[in-house]
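Data availability (excerpt). The following record was deposited with the supplementary files.
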Amino acid sequence: MTTETNNSSSRWGIIYVPMAGTRNRHKRWLQIREILDQKEIQYDYIQSENYGSVERLARMLVNNGYKMIVVVGGDRAVNEALNGIMTSSVENLEDVSLAIIANGVGNDFADFWGLGVDEYKKAIDCIIKGNTRKIDVGYVSFMNGEEMVKRYFLMAVNIGLGARAIEISDFCKQFWGKSNPTYIISMIRLFTRRNQYKMHFKVNETVVNEKIMTLCVGNSRGYGMTPSAVPYNGWLDVSVIYRPKFWQMVHGLRMLMKGRLLNHEQVRPFRTKKFVLYDSQNASICVDGKKLEYNLPMEINLMPEYLNFIVP
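Predicted structure:
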């Protein structure tokens, strides 16, 4: 990272995450840099080595006084940056803002705000205008020995089949793209089997101990699983999805694509401020698309209007 002035608080701290699987990994950055230079934006730029480095880089930028953290990347990169900001040594994040320039194959959170992957000019203009909105930050917490582990999220926590689908999709897209036969075959096998998991959890005053195919706790629309969730109302949406028959599965996928999943007969929705998971039968769990190594019991909570986010 190169800095032209010591006043880092007035400069953008940009973390660029190249799109996985592309030959020209710098093409998008060159396009973005050209616009930044034309508009005479003062910034410092870092390219991440991998997803795991984004959290460290975001934490470093905040600790060094940067107030505007710009992530050029997809959902996982945004999640890593969020966790870097939230675990920084800065006690008061009131003056710190997070912004997104969508890049990559998964941009559900950017899409929620109308910032498509090809709209980097629009995203830059939004950051220049500096319109901020306080958004809710969700977090997962559990004990690992004597240590409390927390993982923050903006979109959703997926448990079960949904999480497994995200794992397969993310792995294949990084290395081969969605059109690869391995991806297609894996997804067909996954949805044909429709595995169930014995889950025990509490949402509001309701205790559930049943076989469930997949479950989503969303702060945002959660890849369509919690389509009514918005990251600024102080609530978490929960979609509990039971194992459908095959024809119901096909119908459900159509409803998922149209944002009407909650109307499906095998979906049980809740709205809550706290979710407690006691048992999951070792089901996969993903937090904003990132696989989580976890212990139980686990709590999922919300910090209302906690983080400044740049919006159109």
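Summary of structural features: The first helix runs from residue 27 to 38.
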